[in-house]
Amino acid sequence: MIAIMSALAEALAPLLTAEVRPETGAVLFRQGGPIRHYYVVRSGCAHLVRWGADGTSAVMQRATGVSVLAESSVFMSAYHCDAICVSDSVLARADMDRVRRALDDQPELLRELARHLGREVHRMRARVELLSRRTVADRLDGWLALNGDTFPARGQWRSIAEDIGVSPEAFYRELQRRRQR
Asked: 134-151: b or e for each residue (b if 16 or more CB lie within 10 Å)?
């Protein structure tokens, strides 16, 4: 996944003029807030979280390694999710107006963004399929097929439970079953 996503991050590199180092729990932006920056996660992990009217939440993106965060925001005026760092992170940041001008002026950058968004549509469809699975075991198998066998650090396993739409307790029970086999 990093190799696929780094092509857009690499294309954006000349526009990334600032580096931020938010700690675990830091909020980069809030749902409904004006879009001012374009972010690339260089290390750590940030989640895009959408909140329902009833207070429930859904993780829309889990950005790790070298990946663009909230890439479709380039076409919007307000964020549709909160961005929350779930680990200490390093992010590069670009002024959104500058990114938009570059997309207007550089057709290859626009094509790279379109390729990236196409891959993200494919990935989101795979995630929807994963969430349609009935058992925790099937969802975890789907997550592993989508993300590889590399788990995040032990203290961040809860994020996998969020990704597959199960309680942390159900996720940990499934991990225990797998260890016993």
From this structure: eebeebbebbeeebeeee
Superfamily of domain 2-106: Jelly Rolls (2.60.120.10)
> At CA 122, angle to CA 28 and CA 104, rounded to 5?
60
Euclidean distance between CA atoms 17 and 144, whole angstroms:
35
Beta carbons within 10 angstroms of residue 84's beta carbon: 20
Residue 2 near residue 28 (C-beta atoms within 8 A): no
- What is the pLDDT, as a whole number, of residue 5? 46
With beta carbons less than 8 A apart as the criterion, state whether 12 and 43 touch: no
Average the pLDDT over 98-118 and give the result: 95
pTM of the model: 0.76
Distances (CA, A) of 139 to 20, 52, 156, 161: 34, 23, 18, 9
Judge whether residue 2 has pLDDT over 60: no
**Torsional sign, CA 177, 178, 180, 181:** positive
**Is the model's pLDDT at 1 over the cut of 70?**
no
Angstrom distance (rounded) from CA 159 to CA 139: 14
